[in-house]
Each structure stands twice: as C-alpha cells, then as structure tokens.
Amino acid sequence: MILINIDKSQSASYLYQQIYKEFKNKILDRTYKAHEKLPTKRTLSEQLGISINTVTNAYEQLLAEGYIYTIERSGYYVEEIAQFSTTKNANDDFPSYLREKGKNRSGSVSLSHMTADIDEFPFQDWLKCEKEAIKQFSEELSEIGHPQGPYEVRKTIAKFIALSRGVKCEPEQIVISSGTQPLVKQLMSLTVDTTTVAMESPGYPRIYSMLTNHIQLDTKLIPLDEHGANIEAVDQSKADFLFVTPSHQFPSGKIMPISRRIELLNWALKKENRYIIEDDYDSEFKYQTDNIPSLQSLDHHQRVIYFGSFSKSLLPTLRISYMVLPINLLKIYREKFSDLINYTNTLSLYTLHHFIQSGMYERHIKKMTQHYEKKRNLLIQTLKNTFKDTCTINDIPAGLHFTARFVTDKSYEEIERLAEEVKLEIYTLKRFSLNDEYKQSKNIELIIGFANTKTDEIKEAINRLQQIFTA
C-alpha cells in the first residue's frame, strides 16, 4: 500500500487539499495505476490520524475532476487517464521579453493629454447617482440589455447632445459602447464592399493602426492646412469614410471654420454611401467663447456619423462612448448586431443617466471648464516666461491640450529619451505623424496636456522641460 505524506499541523481545510494534491500527483505520474483501488475513507483517516470528513472532501474533489471513479459498495478506483504527449522543456518558461514592468511614477510630473483631473471628480455625487440607479433600475440590471445600450440612457444622451452640440437624432440612432475603437470597428463592418477610409495626419495612431492592421482597410492620410483637413486631398482620396475632428483637431488643436465644414458636407454628397465620421472627443471644454456647434448639426442629408465620449469630461476608465448613426446605416446595424451583448457596464450607464438628469453633469462641466482654463493660462504663461522666443505656442482656447514648437538642434528621439531621464511625461508630434514624415529642421513640436497636471507642479514640469532642451 502506497502511503501519502501530509503536514498535520495545517488546518483541516488545508489538510484535504494536501491529500487531494498528493493523490493527483501520484495518479498523474502513474504511481497509482489505472483501476487500482484506493484506501477506504476510514482506512486512510486511521492511517493519517485525521477525520473521515477531511478524506471525504479530498476524494470528492478527485472524483469531480475525473481522477478517480467509484463503484457502489466497493470503493474508489483510479481512472484511466491519457498521458501528456510531451514533457516540459526549458522553452516552456515565460520569455523575459514578454514580461511587463510596473510603472514607477514616484517623482514624475506629467504634461500628458490623455487623462482628466481625477482630484476634481465629484465621486460623492456619482455614488449618489449610482445608488439611485440601483434603486430605480434594479430589474434592468439583472437582464441582458439592448445591443445599443439602455433606451433610457440613449434618450438622455440624445437630449443632452441636442442642447449642447446641436446634434439632431433620435435615441434609436445612438449606439453606446466601451470606447471609440469598438464603435469604429462595428461601423466599418457594416459595408460589404471594399472600403476606403481617409483620416487626418497628424491624427490618432490607435485608430489608424486598427484600420490598417486589424481591419486591413485601404486608409488614406489627409494632410492639414490652416483650416483643417485639406479639401483637395480629401477629394483625391476617393474615400467612402472620412475621419475628422473638426471642433478641436487632434493633435493640432485647429478649429475647422464654417467654410471648410460646408466643403466637406458637399464632398460627402458627391458619392452614394459616402460618410464623414465626426469625432467630438473633447468638445465640452471651450474657453473665452461659446462651444462650436457640431458638424452633424449642419448635415441635412444624413451623411455625418457623430462620435462622442465621456472619457475627457468624466473619467477615462469609465469607458463610455457613443455614435449617432444615419438612418440607413442604423437599419443595417440592427440587422447585423441584433444579437450583440453591449460591451459597457450597465450600472455605469444608468448612473450616467441620473448624473445628467440631475444637472450634476452640467455643473461638473462648468466647474471643470473654469478649473482647466486657469491651469491652461498658468501653463502657457510659465512656458512663455521660461522659453521666451524659442517657443511658439499654438494658443487655441479649446480642449485639454495645445501644441508648442521649440527651437532646438535635438532630434525627437533625443527629446523622448531625455524626458524619460528627468521623469517628465510628454508626447511629441512624431507619435501622431501617421506617415512618419514629420518635420525635423531646427524645430520640435510637443503636444502639451494640462488636465492631470497639478497646479503646484506646473513650474516644476516646465523646469524639467527646459532641462531637456538645454541638456
């Protein structure tokens, strides 16, 4: 009889796991043969000096996983188990080049454009709305919701963007998801013919990578002129979809004037099933003047697909974005995605519904606009005082970032390396130049974000930036 070794100083719950593991290992290494009878529960409990219940728990776990089987009034037997076809070798170890390193932010300061000021987020108000959502929509929270998101939430969003952005739509036209990327991917799958997409460069590298590498679409890059996407290049692209950011071009910050907007709308009408994707990613924040109406508000022919997000105005980690589909595309979407389970957190969506309905969202936006404008002004003034005439700021009063051009002989690669050394988080224009053709001659252009830069860290951030250029 083969005995097993256990450490009886451990708790009863851990004892049964020891027995289970011992038997499992001896069965797998063929110490116990197929169909060999195991000791009875009473026998094993007496041999090991433990309770029958502990042995029973171990045997039941082995039985549940298929290591043993039982014959009524006879006992437990070893199951016939296939052997693994190969043995472990050194190559089974996890490769070091795939291991991830945790970020050490100690001592770092940021001029990143990719986040919001979490210190100013009204968590208590959000939690109040969450409690209200649980109370009012408890039944809906227990069910699989509509593929486009809950109707009540879409109705609230439709009303909000009509008032704030002039967007004309019904709740049925809104599709909510966990980010812009999944929405773009769904949108691109609605067409059966080969699709050509055009997008601004510089622009979003993640969207560009998804279109070209993952969806593998023919993607044309459109250069910018003083009014935004160059209309001649747009026309020459012969694109089916044009991806633009007219209210605050990313990353240049340009605001597209009405004349160029009308030209783009006229371009869309020149070909059947041609659309403009308007990404209104940070339109909530406009300084000195009122918000710029959306491009979709000018569209009378259902050719603009409006994209919005709550990532900049609330928290990026909430992952709530939406698109407004023209009616003919909505029909195709309903046919194709009728069985889709919506990607977003339903509780977060109903919480957002109450957050907007209660007026808390509007108050939050007003407060944050004033807060961001103060930080933005302080940051620009500190840059001017520090760099004098060696820095040119593209001062467009909108959004959560602006661009600045610095006179230097250093390369983009040097700037990025030195920024890492002084623990300053910055992003250069090189990152967003989608065709890798970025101007280098005596100038470096940076995307300066200020949402997550603490007011008392602005001076230190600019001092570190100066260190980079003078190193």
UniProtKB/TrEMBL annotation:
**Keywords from the named record:** Aminotransferase, DNA-binding, Pyridoxal phosphate, Transcription, Transcription regulation, Transferase
Instruction: Give the protein's cofactors.
Output: pyridoxal 5'-phosphate
Mind telling me which CDD domains this protein's record contains?
AAT_like (cd00609), WHTH_GntR (cd07377)
- Origin superkingdom: Bacteria
Q: SMART domains, alphabetically?
A: HTH_GNTR
> Which part of the chain is the HTH gntR-type domain?
13-81
InterPro entries cross-referenced by the UniProt entry = Aminotransferase_I/II_large (IPR004839), HTH_trans_reg/aminotransferase (IPR051446), PyrdxlP-dep_Trfase (IPR015424), PyrdxlP-dep_Trfase_major (IPR015421), Tscrpt_reg_HTH_GntR (IPR000524), WH-like_DNA-bd_sf (IPR036388), WH_DNA-bd_sf (IPR036390)
What GO terms are given for molecular function? DNA binding; DNA-binding transcription factor activity; pyridoxal phosphate binding; transaminase activity
A Pfam match is GntR
| Keyword DNA-binding in record | yes
Q: Which PANTHER family match?
A: HTH-TYPE TRANSCRIPTIONAL REGULATORY PROTEIN GABR
Q: Which family does it belong to?
A: In the C-terminal section; belongs to the class-I pyridoxal-phosphate-dependent aminotransferase family.
What protein does this entry describe? PLP-dependent aminotransferase family protein
Gene source species: Candidatus Pseudogracilibacillus intestinigallinarum
